[in-house]
C-alpha cells in the first residue's frame, strides 16, 4: 500500500503561464520558492580538462566513483551502467564493475510460437570501455581504488545535444514529477503537459532533460499509484473534516458567539466549511465597510482552498473577520462563501470587497453582493502580467510594463480607453487572450474606474504585506485540519486583540486644524491627514470664475501634477474634490484642506472625521449581554477619562514616560486594595465586556 504525505502542505497559488484557470504554479513556505517552475539543476560543471579516471585513483565510496565516472562519460559522449559486484562476509561488497552502456551483447531470446513480438535493435555492441574498483580497509577506513580502466570504444561517441537524450540522463526530477501528475489529473494531454513545462522553465521546445515518451511512460506507471493515493487522501480528508466539525461544535458549546456552517454532497460528505468568532463579528460592525477576501492559499493534502475575510482597523492593521475552506473554486462554492459572510455578520453587507484576480469570484460577487463595489487587487494582477508577457514580449517587456503602470494610474476613463488601444496596437497584442481578460475586468482594477470606491487604504502595499505576514503566521506549521483550526483561532485572537504601539504625534504645521485632528484621530489616520496637510502648503486655490460660486481650482505651485476641482458648499459645510481621496480613504485630501485653510477654519467639520478612524473605535465595547442605562455610568466616565489620558500622553515623550511610570504605580496600589476587599457582598454584578480590537 502506498503512503501519502504526512504533512498538510499549504501552498500559495498563482496562475500558470499556460493561461488555464485550472492550472496553477504553486509556491511553498515562507520563502515562496517555486516547486514547479524550478529549472532542472544542471549536472556538476566540469572543466574541459576533466581528469580521466586512472589506475590507482582513490574514492571514499563506490557511489562517489560511479558519479565521477558518469560525469566523465557524459562529458565524453557516452553513458555508463553498473555491471557486476562481488561480496565477501568480511568486507561486504568489495568489487564493483562499471562499464560503457554499449558493453556486452544482448541475449538471444526465444520467440514463443504463434505470438508476435516486436524486434528491438539492441545498442550493445561489445564495447570494452570500463572502470573496475576494489575496496580496501586501511586503518579502519574503507577506500575504493581503480584497478582497471579503459576508455577505448568500438562505437561512435555522441555530441552534447545527443548525449543528453541517452536513457541514463533522461531523468524527471521530483519537482517535475509533481507538476506532471497535477496537470495529468487536471486532464491535460501529454503533449500539452510538455508544453506547459517548457513555458514555465522559459526554454525552447525539445530542450527538456526528458522526452515526451518519458512523460507518457511516467504517467502510465504512476496511474495505479495515483489512484491509491487519491483513495487514501479521500479517506484522510473525510476523517479530518469530521474532526474539524467536532472541533467547531465543541467551540460553539463553549462560546455561543462562535458561528460556523458547512455543506455536504449527495453522499453526505463534507464539501465546504466556514467559521467566525464573536469578537470578529463585533469588529465587523465597526470596520466591516470594506473587506479583503484572500484566496491565495490551497492545501495540497486536502485539495481545499482557504479563503479569509480580512478588514482594516482604525490603526491601519489587518483585522480577521472569518474564514472558509472550499472544496473547489466554482461559482457555486464562492457564492456559498459570500452567503456565509453576510449571515455570520448579521446581514451587514460591505461597501467594497477587494479580491484577487478570479473570474469565478467576480461572478459570485455580482450574484451575492449586488450592492457592493468590487475591486481587484493590483497586487494580484502584477505577478500575472509578468508571467503572461515577459517571455512573449522579450526586450519590449520593460517598455510595456511602464506603459501598463501609467495606464493603471490614469484619472480619466476616456484617457484609459484611448491609451489602452494604443498600447495593444504598439505591442501587437490584439489577439492575446490575457489582454482581453484584463480589459474585460478593467472596471474593477484600473484607478480611473475604481477611484471613489471606499477602500480605507486597504489597497496599499503596506497593508498587503501585513496581510501576507498574518497569513504566513497561520500556515507556519503543517498539521491536520483540527490543529489548523486551532491555529487560525490563535492567530486571529492575537491579531484582533493586539494593542497599537504608542506613537508620539508631533505637530508639524502649527495649524489649529492639525491640533484638533490630533485629539480625535488614531495615530495611523492622523499621520495620513498630517501628510496631506503638509502637502497642502505647496498648493494654491483659485476661484473658478467660469463656474458657480464655491468652485476652486487647486494646483501645485510647480504644476507637477494636474489641477483638481474643489466644490465648496458653505451652507452644509460640504466639500468635494475631483481626486475623490476622501471618498476612497475617508481622509481629506490636500486640495480640500487647502480650501479649508484659506477659509480660516480652525477645526474641520465633524463629518470629515469618520468613526472608523477615531480613537474611541479602539476602546472596549459592550456585547449583547451588557447592562446599560444608569448601571454603566461609572464605566462611561472611566472610558472618557482613559481616552483623555491617552490623548494627552501621546503629545510628548516626557508625558508618555510620566504616565507609564505613575499609572503603573497607581493601578498596582488600587489592585492590591481591591484584592483585600471581601469577594462577595451579596449584590451580584451581571455585566461582561468584550474587546473588539
UniProtKB/TrEMBL annotation:
Coarse class of the protein's main subcellular location: nucleus
Keywords, in A-Z order: Metal-binding, Nucleus, Zinc, Zinc-finger
GO MF terms held by the record: zinc ion binding
GO biological process: regulation of DNA-templated transcription
Record domain SWIM-type: where: 565-600
Record bears the keyword Acyltransferase: no
Subcellular location: Nucleus
Keyword Metal-binding set for record: yes
GO (cellular component) term, any one: nucleus
Function: Putative transcription activator involved in regulating light control of development.
Family: Belongs to the FHY3/FAR1 family.
Protein name from the UniProt record: Protein FAR1-RELATED SEQUENCE
Record organism: Durio zibethinus (Durian)
The encoding gene: LOC111275280
